[in-house]
Design goal:
The chain is about 75% helix and about 0% strand. With about 230 residues, it is mostly helical. It is globular, with a radius of gyration of 19 Å. The N and C termini lie far apart (about 65 Å).
C-alpha cells in the first residue's frame, strides 16, 4: 500500500531529503577540516553545494561537493591562507594594544572595527568564489561589492555564522552535544541559511533558471559584477 506522505515529492519526503543532504555535505566538510590547509577549499565546496541546493532545489551532495572542491580549490586555498594571516595580524594587534600603555589602548576600537569589516568580507569571500569565476583579487572586490550592496544581509549573515560559535564557547558544559551537532549538520545548516540570502543577492548577476546548466556554464562571468560596480562608482 502506498503511503502518500512518504513519497519523495511530499513535504515530509522533501524535508527528509533536505536533512540527508545537509548531513552528507556537513560530513564531507568536516573531513576537509582535518588537514587545516584544506579548510578553505572545503568551505568553498560547501558554499557551492548549498547555493546550488537553494537555486535548483535538489543536489547530489557527494558529486556537487567534489565538483565545488576541484573547481575552486586554488582560489579558496589562497583565500583561506590570506584570511588566517589577516586574523593572526589583528589578533596580535589587539593583544599587544590591550596590554600596552593608555595611548596604544586607544587604538583598540579602531582595530576592532577593521577586524569586524574583515570578518564580513571573509564570510562573503568563499560563497563568491563558489558562485562566480575569476581570480582571488576579483573575488575580494566582488565580496566587498556584495557586502556593501545590502548591509542588512551582511549583518544577518554574520549573526547566523558567528552566533552558534559564540553559543558553543559560552556553554562549554554542553560541549559534547555541541560538538556532535556541529559534526552532524552545524556547518551545512549555517551555510544553507546564508545561501538563502546570498542566492537572492547573486540572482541579478546570474543567468535565469530554465534548466540546470552544464558544468562549464554554472558560473556567471565576473565582468557582470564589475560592470555594476562601475555604475555604482559613477
Amino acid at each position: 500500500m502506498r503511503i502518500a506522505f512518504l513519497d519523495n515529492d511530499s513535504k515530509f519526503g522533501q524535508l527528509c531529503t533536505l536533512i540527508g543532504t545537509l548531513i552528507a555535505a556537513n560530513l564531507l566538510f568536516v573531513l576537509t577540516l582535518l588537514p587545516v590547509i584544506t579548510a578553505g577549499a572545503g568551505l568553498c565546496a560547501l558554499s557551492y553545494t548549498m547555493l546550488k541546493l537553494v537555486r535548483y532545489k535538489e543536489v547530489n551532495p557527494f558529486t556537487d561537493f567534489w565538483e565545488g572542491l576541484k573547481t575552486n580549490w586554488k582560489q579558496a586555498t589562497f583565500g583561506w591562507m590570506l584570511a588566517l594571516a589577516v586574523g593572526a595580524f589583528f589578533s596580535a594587534d589587539l593583544w599587544i594594544c590591550s596590554r600596552s600603555p593608555e595611548t596604544l589602548r586607544l587604538c583598540v576600537p579602531v582595530i576592532s572595527a577593521a577586524a569586524f569589516f574583515c570578518v564580513i568580507l571573509a564570510l562573503y569571500l568563499f560563497p563568491v568564489i563558489a558562485a562566480f569565476e575569476g581570480r582571488l583579487r576579483d573575488a575580494l572586490r566582488n565580496s566587498l561589492f556584495f557586502a556593501g550592496k545590502n548591509m542588512v544581509y551582511a549583518l544577518v549573515i554574520m549573526t547566523v555564522s558567528l552566533l552558534p560559535m559564540l553559543a558553543t564557547y559560552l556553554f562549554m558544559d554542553m560541549l559534547p552535544l555541541s560538538a556532535f551537532l556541529w559534526c552532524l549538520c552545524g556547518f551545512s545548516l549555517t551555510s544553507f541559511c546564508n545561501a538563502l540570502l546570498l542566492t537572492r543577492l547573486f540572482a541579478p548577476y546570474q543567468p535565469e533558471i530554465e534548466e540546470e546548466p552544464p558544468a562549464e556554464n554554472r558560473h556567471s562571468s565576473r565582468w557582470e559584477i564589475l560592470a555594476e560596480m562601475r555604475k555604482i562608482e559613477r
